[in-house]
Amino acid sequence: MEFINNWYKKAKGVIFHPKEFFKKMPTTGGYKEPLMFALINIFIAGVFISFPYRSNILVYSFLVLQLILGSIAIFIIAAVLHPFLKLEGGKKNYEATFRVVAYLSIYYTLVMYSNLFSYISSSIGVIVYWIVFLYTIYVLCIAFDEAHEIKSLPPWLSVILTVAILVILGIMIKIFMIS
To answer: Minimal CA–CA distance to 108: which of 15, 45, 176?
Structure first.
């Protein structure tokens, strides 16, 4: 029960009080705690994604695969973001970047949850999705500003560059899979 309470407190802090959460967030202390938080979020998001498919072996396989790939993705996203944060004057190490990315995984859960609104109405689903997505970008910038103590340039630059790189990588993977 304590584990669930800790997850809930952190999720609530990241969603409703991101500036305070990331200002107080320890930037060192290991990878285990933020990774466990992220894995819970990835699992919950996987449940939301697989909701319409009910129970079958493919759903369970998907959940396991999503946990594995999701945990790897957190390390990769942090590795892509970190050099940009350093260029902008970020004062913290890779672990701080990893912790921010791991705690922001709650927004992945929220984005997947917003997809459930599409079952009510596709228009409502799209609107909820974009609200959550834009708020996620906003919180991402706050998180890096607070965790890395960036005061010279706004962290928007890192976010935009990282999103651009990830989109380009996604397009390249898609092209590679088609050919």
So the answer is: 45
